[in-house]
Amino acid sequence: MRQLITPRVVAFVVGLLFALAALWALAKGVGPAFATFGQYGRFTEPMAESEFHKYPEKRDFSFNGPLGKWDTRQLQRGLKVYDEACAACHSLKFVSFRDLAALGLTEAQIKAYAAKKVVPGIDPVTGETTTRPGLPTDRFPSPFPNDIAARAANNNAIPPDLSLMTKARHDGTNYVAALLTGYRGQPAELVAKFPDAKTGPGLHYNPYYANLNIAMAPPLTSEGQVTFDDGTRATVPQMARDVAAFLTWTAEPQLVKRRQTGWAVMVFLLFATGLAYLSKQQIWSAVKPKKN
């Protein structure tokens, strides 16, 4: 009898018990939930988000594709849109003023731009916290001293930092452009079918936002809200595209350079592969195959 109770038998019995327990849980609890799972990985029970949420349409940006390049004029326009329409609520904590040189700004322009910003500092005499004009080495300051102040000024919602926003969202560049132009009235059929999804006080309906209702008020409201230095007509879609391109640059400033490096690496690897093949042919050319 002792010989029959081997470790292998014990392991088999334990595994069988686990399998039975999993089948029981699947039948009693998890099964009904997955029975309502739809064709595209969503629950078939109707939800406002699944029926009315929209995905951003594709837009043509200069940096799209393997041979894309930054449009510095567009990035400068995007910086101005951020500065005049977004900076009052959203920070860029991972971007320094001196990084703007990549946008074509001169050293003098960067110094002048940074000096207009107020950044935290330390009084050299008393050691107390104070403020001072920005320097090129400083990063973009936060518009709020802390999260409590941010919530108090934004309907109890903390505005997210925008430094990496286009990397934090799927299809981030198009998402930002679509979100900024997506504000509209809530459809009557949505409210009739999903009364609980009605846009509440302090919220705004936007079908490109995950749950359709967003606390951020429309930041781009009218044509000419921003005056571009290059004379480009500042329509709402244009401003949205420009700031989306700028935030793509803040999230991945080395995007174009990385792609260029990738092409150089591919060319080198193809060349090295050719040399390796020719070397192999040269080394083994004198070796004759054995006959059976």
Q: Can you walk me through this structure?
A:
- The protein has about 290 residues and is mostly helical.
- It has helices at about 5-35, 50, 70-85, 105-115, 145-155, 165-170, 170-180, 190-195, 235-250, 255-285, and strands at about 120, 130-135, 205, 215.
- The strands form two sheets. It has a two-stranded antiparallel sheet. The chain has a two-stranded antiparallel ribbon with strand order 3-4.
- β3 and β4 (about 215) form a beta hairpin.
- α3 (about 70-85) packs across α9 (about 235-250) and α7 (about 170-180) runs antiparallel to α9 (about 235-250).
- The longest helix has 29 residues, at about 5-35.
- The protein is extended and about 85 Å long.
Gist of the model:
The chain is mainly α and 292 residues long.
Main beta-sheet annotation: 2 strands, antiparallel
Number of strands: 4
**How large is the share of residues in beta strands?**
under 5%
Number of helices: 10
Could you say which overall geometry the principal axes of the C-alpha atoms support?
Answer: extended
What topology, given as strand order, has the largest sheet? Answer: 1-2
Distance between the termini: 58 Å
Encode the helix/strand succession as letters.
HHHHEEHHHHEEHH
| Unreliable stretches covering 5 or more consecutive residues | 31-41
* Helix content bin: 40-55%
Provide the gyration radius in Å.
29 Å
User: Averaging pLDDT over every residue, what do you get?
Assistant: 87
Given helix and strand content, the structural type is: mainly alpha
